[in-house]
Amino acid sequence: MARRHHYRRYTQETPELNITTFLNLMVVLVPFLLITAVFSRITILELNLPTGAGDASKVNKPSMSVEVIVREKGLEIGNGKTILVRFPKQEDQYDLQTMSEYLLKIKAKYLGKKDATVLMEPDIEYENLVAVMDAVRIAEVVQGDDPEPQEIELFPNISIGDAP
To answer: Which of 78, 121, 127, 153 is an S-S bond match for 67, by CB 3.0 to 4.6 Å?
Structure first.
């Protein structure tokens, strides 16, 4: 007697794809990323390197050039030829307030002047450079009875370089 072979076909059903957990994750993650993207802000300060002395493209050179030199011992303000004033470090901190007041006096004499050069020695910390650049760009002044300081623009176009 011949045996009959019954081959059973195994039909594999494709498993159902369960994406509910993935969708739950997206429902929470997408709004969170959209909300945090609005609050994150990158601030970029555009800087220029000092130009060479032989630059013939600038025919009308201003008579005053503002140079703030950041040294290990303190700050110096010069006009490109000589040092006008020195502000020594006090208790290991730069006297940015006094420097800002002096720059306000220079700005009052030269209202159209918008550029300044910040020169620094090689071993100056980056935080100090940023603080000096902020003090050169903007001065906070208390006017009248208002206790809230107002920001006055000094020299927003800053060039950086190495101190002589």
So the answer is: 78
